[in-house]
Amino acid sequence: MAERSNPVADARLFRNIYVCRNCNTKIRVSNPKLLRPMQIRCRNCGSKALRPKHKELRKLKV
Ligand SMILES: [Zn+2]
After folding, report:
1. CA 12 to ligand 1 centroid distance, Å
2. Which residues lie across from 50 on neighbouring strands?
3. Ligand 1 centre from 9 Cα, in Å?
4. Among the residues of the chain, which ranges form H helices?
5. What's the 27 CA to ligand 1 centre distance in angstroms?
6. Is the model's pLDDT at 45 over the cut of 90?
């Protein structure tokens, strides 16, 4: 991984990014109304099984 820069910038970068549990496609969500994972669908496989990208970052941190 790249070196950690600004935590605020990291939060901003990862907050709106989700990862498909099915095919690991990263999905960037710019619309705050769609921030609920239930409303986002993977454009690659159409699955709604998504996880927030920032959880992965938190796991790496520990
Ligand atoms: Zn997918």
Report:
1. 23
2. 20
3. 26
4. 7-15, 53-61
5. 9
6. yes
Tokens of 11: 């939060």
- What is the signed CA dihedral for 28, 30, 34, 36, rounded to 10 degrees? 60
Q: How far is the CA of 61 from the centre of ligand 1 (A)?
A: 25
Q: pTM for this one?
A: 0.59
Q: Give the Å distance between the CA of 23 and the centre of ligand 1.
A: 4
| Ligand 1 center–CA 15 separation, angstroms | 19
Residue 62 tokens read as 């520990």
Mean pLDDT, residues 3-11 taken together: 70
Contacts of 49 (CB under 8 A, 6+ apart): 20, 21, 22, 42
